[in-house]
Design goal:
This protein is an all-alpha fold. The protein has one domain. About 85% of the residues lie in helices and about 0% in strands. The chain is built from 4 helices and no strands. The protein has helices spanning about 5-25, 30-35, 40-60, 60-70. The longest helix is centred in the N-terminal third of the chain and has 24 residues, at about 5-25.
């Protein structure tokens, strides 16, 4: 089964989350809360999706390592 599309989607959400955390750390500015409301139902869903994508990408370590072995 090819999960490349799911991998890229999850990676995109995790990058959005990382940029958001960078903004929180540097400027105390929460972009997701700014765009969708401070802990509104929509922003909470986005936070949950980003968290689930991060957990999903934990499995990517094994898959990327296996893929690199096959390419060598």
């Amino acid at each position: 089964m090819n999960s490349k599309g799911l991998d890229y989607t999850a990676l995109t959400f995790v990058i959005i989350g990382a940029v958001n955390w960078g903004l929180v750390g540097l400027l105390k500015f929460d972009l997701i809360a700014f765009l969708f409301g401070n802990l509104s139902w929509l922003s909470r869903i986005i936070y949950i999706v980003i968290g689930v994508c991060g957990l999903y990408l934990i499995s990517a370590y094994g898959r990327f390592t296996d893929q690199n072995r096959e390419d060598a």
